[in-house]
Amino acid sequence: MRDLEIIRSKHGFISDMDGVIYQGSQLLPGVKEFVDWLRKEKKQFLFLTNSSERTPLELHKKLLAMGIDIDESHFYTSALATAQFLKTQAPGSSAYIIGAHGLMNALYDAGIPFNDVNPDYVVVGETTGYNYEMIIKATQLINQGAKLIATNSDLTGPSDRGIIPACRALVAPIELATGVAAYFIGKPNPLMMRTGLKKLGVHSGDAVMIGDRMDTDIIAGVETGMETALVLSGVTTRSTMKHYSYQPHYVLNGIGDIVPKK
CA dihedral in degrees (12, 150, 81, 233; nearest 10)? Predict the structure, then answer.
């Protein structure tokens, strides 16, 4: 494995959250030490999550309850990326939204109201309130001309209950029923990665992408020209990692491995 001093010397750190920072409601080992190290070394850092359920304020409060105080400005979600994309692409548009309040709020703040009659878009994100009626409504609206957008392409994700279906699993029935493929906004879409780097104010060559998924986190870092670190605290194992044609620069047990040992 490459010398960890290479990534320790980088100025910008982009990290996934689920499976890297926490698992469900449990903070993962080494996270406090990692955040303390980032601050001590005056690194620029951003938690870039494909989850669209929570707002940055809620993510701040969630981590605060776990004992870490991180300002809202350090969080960027696929919901915010989706709202920015639609605001740029089609200002004044409306959407039928399947998702939690993190997505609803982001779209509303971007001037994209909920519309279940004649929307320009059907936008799908993760939500525990998903049901068959939503699939019927989305199918109907897409057949009437609405475009299909999904916040992220994760098929599954880690939780307190183990691995659970994520956004791609929720949007799949709508794609199958309509014959329309969704456009996915979150990682590994370069739109989200470039925004993350811009928010950090660092070049890709001076940044690190840390994540637990090969198909979103690591490929996003590879294709953006960043150093990549896969942590084994989430959904990927050493054996499943080998199935991919691209590989991370580093394989770590957890994010705390980045912190130099005293």
Answer: -30
261 is in an annotated binding site: no
Q: 114: which DSSP letter?
A: B
Q: Which fold has domain 2-49+186-256?
A: Rossmann fold (3.40.50)
For the domain made up of 77-182, the CATH class stated in words is alpha beta
Q: Is 3 one of the annotated active-site residues of the chain?
A: no
CA atoms within 13 A on the CB side of 161: 3
Residue 187 and residue 219: Cα distance in Å, rounded? 9
Name the catalytic one among 18, 120, 217, 257.
18
Q: Is 137 annotated as a binding residue?
A: no
AA letter at 163:
I
Whether the CB-CB separation of 188 and 14 falls below 8 Å is answered with no
Residue limits of CATH 3.40.50.1000 in the chain = 2-49+186-256, 77-182
Structure tokens at 245: 């044609």
Q: Which of 16, 154, 217, 257 is catalytic?
A: 16
Strand partners, 123: 97, 149
Ligand-binding annotation for 154, yes or no, is no
Tell me how far apart the alpha carbons of residues 209 and 93 are, in angstroms, rounded to a whole number.
Answer: 33
User: Which pLDDT tens digit goes with each residue over 193-250?
Assistant: 999 999 999 999 999 999 999 999 999 999 999 999 999 999 899 999 999 999 999 9
Annotation says 109 is catalytic: no
Q: Is residue 212 marked as binding?
A: yes
